[in-house]
Task: structure prediction
Amino acid sequence: MNEWLYVALFVFVGLLIPVGAIAAGFIFGPKKANPIKKSTYECGIEPVGEVWVQFKAQYYIFALVFLVFDVEAVFLFPWAVKLGQLGLYAVVEGILFITILIVGLVYTWRKGMLEWV
Amino acid sequence: MSFWINPLKVAADWLEGLLTGWGLDPTLAHVLVAFLGVMLLIVILMVIDIFLVWIERKTVARFQDRLGPNRLGPFGLIQPFADIIKLIIKEDTTPGGADKVVYNLAPILSMMSVLVVWAVVPLAPVMLGVDLNVGVLFLIAAGAIGTLSIIMAGWSSNNKFALIGGFRQVAVMVAFEIPMLTMLMIPTILAGSMNMNDIIQAQGGRWFFLLSPLGALIFLIAAIAELGRAPFDLAEGESELVAGFNIEYSGMKFGMFYAGELLHAMTFGGIWAILFFGGYRFFGLELVSPFLAIPIFLAKALIGYWIIMWVKYTMMRIRIDQMLIFNWVFLTPLSFVLLMVTALLNVLLRDASTWVYAVSMFASNLLVGWIALEVARSMSKKERTKGEGNSLSLRRGVG
Result:
C-alpha cells in the first residue's frame, strides 16, 4: 500500500477523535442559548463596533519576507540531503545563495520594515 | 520473527491471517488492520494526553510552590477524568455572528494537526507509522495546519480579542518558522536524509546534540514560539487579551484546544529528542525489544516537555515587537550562519577522524553562539545609548 495512504488514514482517525469528543460534548451538554449568552465577550460591556476590520499592513510585510525564506527552504532541503555526496563547489554555491538572502534581510531591516510600528 | 522483536508486525500478520481466513478480501483486510493500528496509536496518545493534563498541573504547582491537584485518587491522578466529565457536560456556546463552519472546524484541526505528526515519529527501530522519506518536511506541513487552526479560531469568533490573538500568532509563527526550518536542515545535513528513522540511525556513535548544541537550542526556542507558550504566548496573553484566540470557546471545543496544546508540547519534546538526542537510542538497549525502546523514547520526550514547561513557568511574556525583532534580526541570521558553518565543516572534515570532526563541530557551534551574543550585546548597547533622552523611542515600540 502506498505510504501516503497511511498518512490519509492518520488524518482520518485524527479527525475522528476530536469530532467524537466534540459530539459527546454536544450530546451531553445543555442547550439553552439566549441573546445575552450568545453575545461576544468584551470585558463585560456590550460589544461596540465592527469586529472584522482591516488588518495592519505590517503583517503583509512580514508575510512577504517570510515567503522569500520559505521558498528558499524548498531549494535548500535537497541541497542539505545530498550535501554528503556533493563537493566543496556545491557548498560554496549554497552559501552564496544564503548570503544573497541574508543581504536582502539586512536591507529590509535597515529600511526599517521589520520594526513594529 | 519473534513477538519480542516486532510485536506489532506479529500481531498485524496474525490478525490479517484471521481476517482473510474468514473470507475477507486481502486488500480490505490489510486496510482494516492498518486502520486498527492507527487507531491503537492515537488512542494511546489520547490516554497519554489525559495524563499530560495531570503532569502539567502538578509541575506548574511545584514550580509555584503549591501542591497541585491532590484530592481525587492517589496524588490527584483521577483529576483529569473529572476535568473531562466537566468539559463534556458544559454548554457548547457559539457566539452570535460567528462564522459557524470555520468556528467549529478550528478545534478539530488543532487536535488533528498534532495527531498527524505522530505518523512519522519512530517509536522503536521497527515501529513507526509511516516511513516517509520526507519526514522532516511533513513535520513542517502538519505544524502549519496547527497555525491555520489558530487563525481560523481567531477570525471566526467575532471577537476583537480573538482576532488580535489570531493575528499575533500568525506574525509569530511566520517569523519563527524560518529558524525552525533552518535548524531542521542541520540534522538533515548530518544524517544525509530527511527520513526520521535514518536521522535516528545516524546518531549511532554520538547524538547530534554533541555536534550541534547551538542548533538544538535554536530549535527549542523556535519550537516554544511555534507552540505559543510563554515567553511567546502572545496569542493567548491572558493578562492583555484575556484568552486570545480561544476566548469564545467553551466545553469540549476549548478542551480540544487545551489538550491539543499539551500534546503538541510533548510532541515537540519528542521531535527534539529525535533530531538531537537520538530518539529511542540508549546505549543499544533499543535493539533488545521495542518494549524497552518505547519507554526510552517517551522518557526523552517527557524530559523535553519538562524543559518546555520549565521555560514556560519561569519566563515572563515579552512584547510582540521585541519578539519579532529578536527573531528577524538575531535568530534568523544566526541560524543561517550556523547552517553555513555546519555545511562547510561537514564537507571540509569529511575525511577527518571522528574525534576531530566532533570536537571541531562542537567548538564551531560554541564560537558562533559566542560571537552572536557579543555582536547582539554591543548593538543593543549602541541602541540604548541612542535611545536615552528620547522617551519617544520607548513609546514607539508598543504594539
